[in-house]
Amino acid sequence: MSGGEEQGSEGEGMRIDPARAKVLVENLQHVTQRVDAVRGSRKVRLIAVSKLKPASDILSLHHHPSHPHHDFGENYTDELTTKSSLLPPTIRWHMIGGLQTNKCKPLAETVPNLFSVSSVDTAKKADALEKGRKALVEKRGEEVGEKRLRVLVQVNTSGEESKSGVEPNETTSLCKHIIDKCPHLRLGGLMTIGAIARSKESSSPDALNEDFVTLRETRDRVAGELGVEKESLELSMGMSSDFEAAITQGSDEVRVGTTIFGERPAKKDAKIQ
């Protein structure tokens, strides 16, 4: 990243601020160390949430010479689609924000390196993602195989009306629909956001969060009802304020944004590049 410019087929000519890149790498390494301190022998996926941050920030972390990061999360479908067109195909994109049904098919069809959609809460959205991924596979002349799109069912563990997600007791039905009706999707597990107040109370690794307990219990019940090993359904829970507690309570995947990238600008002021 010498000279303030990154070379490569994707991101070529994109300006990289060396001072900014240094801060981002240090922040990411610090978060990784905190994850390692509580995960034990388990593997935990760290999603760097780049919502409203420029593509150059992502490139700085993805092209780090010794510790390249691959998993990045976005909250808005349009932003994810735009960034994916600007950045290397070796990035694993995670759609973690709320989904509109009409955005599902184009997202799954136009972003080949879309690794996961974490916020599936209706059968209609699953069906639309299925159509999109099927169209992509057929267009590229590929076998389904590993090209199946990983999806997580979002569960409303807090019971808040403002939160998206299926009710815990309705989770199995949606999971079964994905397995039975969506051959181009792969059910990866369950996700929750949880109540903000509980997240703030869970800032220490040993803090108990009721939302995390509910998601874990829901996963265990769903696995039993589907007749699969519970470890085959991953738990995605925990963000900047509570990811250590989430890992301690069984999370396989955490979503960390501001701790890595800093405070976000208002959406109207955000610049993609």
Automatic annotation (TrEMBL):
Domain Alanine racemase N-terminal, chain residue ranges per copy: 27-265
CDD domains associated with the record: PLPDE_III_YBL036c_euk
Signal peptide positions (record): none
Family, similarity comment: Belongs to the pyridoxal phosphate-binding protein YggS/PROSC family.
Protein name, UniProt field: Pyridoxal phosphate homeostasis protein
Function text: Pyridoxal 5'-phosphate (PLP)-binding protein, which may be involved in intracellular homeostatic regulation of pyridoxal 5'-phosphate (PLP), the active form of vitamin B6.
Residues with the N6-(pyridoxal phosphate)lysine modification: K51
Keywords: Pyridoxal phosphate
